[in-house]
Amino acid sequence: MEGSFILMFTSRSVIMTSGLLQNHRILLHIRTKELHKTTV
């Protein structure tokens, strides 16, 4: 019981972390695009 709960919590945190990384990457991509617009 406790093991499965820990496993569920770990997998959820991993999914959340990967999602945050994905969002961060997208934001970074948009920011770099806008920087290129202003410089060019």
UniProtKB/TrEMBL annotation:
Domain of life assignment: Eukaryota
The protein's name in its UniProt record: Uncharacterized protein
